[in-house]
Amino acid sequence: MNELTGAGQPISPEQLGHLHGITQQVEKVCRTQLRSYLDAMAPLFRPRRILGNHMEGSGKESVSGADQNLNDLREVFFKACERPFHLRKELPVPLESVPTQLELNEWEYTYNIQSGRDITVVAPLTWVLAYPSAYTHSMVRQFVASKQDRDTEGVRSFVLRASLMHLMFVKLPDLKQLFEGLRYRVEVRRSPLLGDLPFVTLSAPVTTVRPSDELLSRAATLSGRSGFVEVVDPEQAARINDPLQAEISQILESAPTTSTYN
Known about the structure:
The chain is of the alpha+beta class. It has helices spanning 13-41, 48-51, 66-80, 137-146, 152-171, 174-181, 213-223, 234-237, 243-254; strands spanning 103-112, 118-130, 185-189, 199-203, 208-209, 227-229, 231-232.
């Protein structure tokens, strides 16, 4: 679920505690699996695949379209440099080399309950796919919301690397197909708090949900925190869709029937 999703689900206080325990176990399984996939796919995320010699690196690596790809990166990055970051719009080349030990940051969003109170909600089975950075998605949200002092160069690196990850999926669409073949949905999201900065997110095939506003408020009050972690929808989890199976079933259903086989 994200900030565009509709009303909360009818969950009782008793069910909520039980579902939180299940959610933690499911999150651990999915994160471990996804982590193993990312470790195996790390070479596919080398920025030099699309930027060539515009990235630092040993040896020459000419890439067709690298100049246009760099211009596209500038466009995304410069737009993201505006509010709320207010970063200088400069992008000297060659760009600093970026490690491909990819990170998974939980997706967070702000939800306004009916009482008018803002609550930070974590979607535990949706992750921001990120190149390593001094800041995580959660950390950046926190200091932007509270207007805390920050390391400008660290923020600049975070914004540039998020822009670069977005460009990788735009220029290499097979990456999206690969993840979706593994059942992880790829989306580009933007957070109202973080302006025009695009984030590539990966979502497990298991859906998580929010409870009603009333229960959200009670849970936040009892915990003394202004945040909430979504919980697994057990009905949906029991019938996870398999895209490959669905496609094959469609072929079988549309094939002409015969009474005998040779």
